[in-house]
Amino acid sequence: MKKAVPFIIFGVIAAILIACCGVAGAGLADCTFVPETAPENAGTEFIGVVDSAAELNTTYYDEISKMKDLQDLVAAWGAANNDAKMHLGTVTTFLIVVKEAGTVATNYGNADVISLVSVNSEAKKVSVLALDPDSLVYIDLADTKLTANGPVYAKLNTAYANGGIALLEKTVENNFKIEIDHYLVTDMNGVAAIADAVGGVSVMLDKELKKMITDDFNVIMPADNTPLKGEQIVAYLREKRDGADNHLARQADSLAFLIKSVQTRGFGEAIDFVKELAAVVKTDLAGGELVNVLRRTVLGAWSDYNVVSYTAPDKGTAVQYKDSAWIRIIDIPVVAQSMQDKLFNKTNISLNDSRLSAVELIKAVNKLHFDEIEKQNASAIEGELTEGEENAETEDSGSVG
Question: How deeply is 263 buried, as exposed, middle or buried, from its count of CB atoms within 10 A (0-12, 13-18, 19+)?
Fold first, then answer.
């Protein structure tokens, strides 16, 4: 999860094209957007932890891989009802990805930022939903060149490292029961370029967060509320030390700001800007097609559209495994239901209140783990006290003699 502004890319594209879709078509018809390709040097074995520098992460993955109850829950949900993914003719849904620099023997690293953006012409609403890439999900390796046996249970971001946009899109769809219409992908350089092109992103920064960002990324943040540009906005969106929820909220809120800020852009400026995007964005849509998709999607004035930002998972629907801050177990059915509602203003998922929850399962496992640690600590303290008492008695006995 390093640099993160891809939703900025879609937000700007969507807002600009929605505002001028009737005029910009001809100007963008020759705009060269290219699709994302599969990894050029993909390995044959699934890479479970691409970005882990902590040995603890690998240990936890090994432990999770042996939890059959958890795997059964995740697999049963991920493999079921994939012919009934949520999709509405009045809603166009985009998968937005910022990929990290390659850190393995492929031309891809993990997906640092994963978001869904829906444009709802009926509700006149744009929904921006930032997903936690550290969420444990089901990854179906069918149709890939990987030789792993059976399904894989790993962090969402590793789907991109192993199979590019195709595997990540399939993974998001299977776990969250949402049909994705199109994708937009950029990299870290694209993040900085987009921020500079829009004149920066206005955010509220308290002193503590500024210091945290400077210490972690060696980036000097502005003393006032000057819009963040280039490496500043990248560091702002990468910062995670204050928790995953705050990290995701910064991503979603920044995109919402950008979408709102471009609603008043002029037609000529909009067309020129979208052409600039072609240098840093990969998508399955050509420039002219982007206009056509948004023309079909959006009815009415763009100024009427409400832009709302969300994050997933919601509070209470995720839990860390033991003391790892880098693996989150989520209640996937509940998260999927909530995501559908946020993106489509409705859901086709019905849940049984008596069902077994992955979050409750891991909470029980964690309790046993921490109870055992507490027991060991208490035993160690008791042993130290006993040893101290015995030493004191020995000393007393010696002095009497």
Answer: middle
Query: Distance between alpha carbon 261 and the CA centroid of its chain, in Å?
Result: 23
Mean pLDDT of 236-246: 89
Residues 75, 52: Cα–Cα separation, whole Å: 24
Neighbours of 224 (CB within 10 A): 5
Please state which CATH class domain 6-354 belongs to: alpha beta
Beginning with the edge strand found earlier in the chain, give each strand of the sheet holding 306-312 in spatial order.
282-283, 182-186, 91-99, 111-120, 125-131, 306-312
The reported pLDDT for the residue numbered 187 is 80
On whether the CB atoms of residues 330 and 136 are closer than 8 A, the answer is yes
Token pair listed for 354: 């008596």
DSSP state of 226: P
* pLDDT for 171: 95
| pTM: predicted TM-score of the whole model, two decimal places | 0.83
* Phi, psi for residue 20 in degrees, rounded to 5: -130, 25
pLDDT for res 26: 47
For residues 305 and 358, the model is more confident at 358
Secondary structure, 3-state, 239-252: CCCCCHHHHHHHHH
Give the integer Cα–Cα distance in Å for 292 and 295. Answer: 5
Tokens of 192: 């900085």
Of the pLDDT bands very low, low, confident and very high (cuts 50, 70, 90), residue 374 is confident
